[in-house]
Amino acid sequence: MNNKKDIHILGIETSCDETAAAVVKNGKAILSNIVMSQIDSHKRFGGVVPEVASRHHVEVITAVIEEALEDAGLSIEDIDGIAVTEGPGLVGSLLIGINAAKTLALVHDKPLIPVHHIAGHIYANNLVDDLNYPLLALVVSGGHTELVLIREEGQFEVIGETRDDAAGEAYDKVARTLNLPYPGGPLLDKLAQEGKPNYKLPIAWLEQNSFDFSFSGLKSAVINTVHNITQRGELIVPEDLAASFQESVTEVLVEKAKRAMQEHNVTQLVVAGGVAANKGLREKLKNVLEEGHGYKVTIPPLNLCTDNAAMIAAAGTIAFRNKKFASLNLNGVPGLELESM
């Protein structure tokens, strides 16, 4: 008979422009996952305005947490720990979630659990599949592009990272070049599905055996291509340019992930971050790594790729088991490094 007590973690995520709260049981089962998006507020500015984001978080954070508990059918007294994003992110946004978490922890005498935002994205995969260590994580988001070797649960070793623009950042800048509205990344992905990679664009492989990435040159090449075509009075085929750009990005992401898996003798890849929602990347990873080489590829559903609090609660469960708690002096750290939990 199994007498182990279930662990219920309340997760809070406010690192950018989503106000989110969720309850997860035993790091695997989502009991609730509430996300309040601010996209409409930031759309007219063409990007996230930090002051506006903070103000929205203040307005809705209490209601979002209450809704998460209500949907889970639990009270705050049923919660074992409160996990919150410590960083990285926008400092004003981070502080709203952290102060809400600290208040709940103090008033209800609950452990306060700091979570790295990227660790959350990685452990979103724990909500949909079993993770077999050692494994490799491919992190692709607006601010990060990294290959992370995870030899055992909660142990992170960054073996490759971007030297300039992150993949998601490059997507957004290319989308703006093609006059796509904010947020441009998903629209660029959709456009790429309708075109063919007929434009010649560079792929930055960097030094031999390097697992690092660089997308700045590719972004500049797209801007120059648009400029040159316009100067000649010719028409750009947006679908083909989007497909060409996406082909250059996904080619280097998939190839370096494959090489890293071979070199470090791992058989499972987990994909993390907002760009994990990209259809072109998802298909290529499955085709090349899973069907072509027999590796296991785990990618969360779209609602768990973008920022959410269930992923923070999932990662927080690991920290809870390891008793990695914070004091009430916890602060937001915009440039927080990924460290083992």
What does this structure look like?
The chain is an alpha/beta fold and 341 residues long. The protein is built from 11 helices and 10 strands. The protein has a 5-stranded mixed β-sheet with strand order 3-2-1-4-5, sandwiched between helices. A hairpin with a 6-residue loop joins strand 7 and strand 8. Helix 8 runs parallel beside helix 9. The longest helix has 27 residues.
In short:
43% of the residues lie in helices and 18% in strands. It has helices at residues 39-43, 50-72, 91-108, 117-123, 167-177, 184-192, 216-231, 238-264, 279-291, 302-305, 310-321, and strands at residues 8-13, 18-25, 29-37, 81-87, 112-116, 135-140, 145-150, 157-161, 268-272, 296-298. β7 and β8 form a beta hairpin.
From the structure above, extract its key features.
alpha/beta; 341 residues; 11 helices; Nucleotidyltransferase, domain 5; five-stranded mixed sheet; 18% strand
Q: Which strands sit side by side, in order, in the main sheet?
A: 3-2-1-4-5
Count the helices. How many? 11
| Secondary structure tally: strands | 10
Give the N-to-C terminal Cα separation: 30 Å
Structure class: alpha/beta
CATH 2nd-level architecture of the largest domain: 2-Layer Sandwich
Mean pLDDT: 94
Report the order of strands and helices.
Answer: EEEHHEHEHEEEHHHHEHEHH
Shape: globular
- Determine the CATH topology of the largest domain: Nucleotidyltransferase, domain 5
Radius of gyration: 20 Å
The total domain count is: 2
Q: Specify the CATH class of the largest domain.
A: Alpha Beta
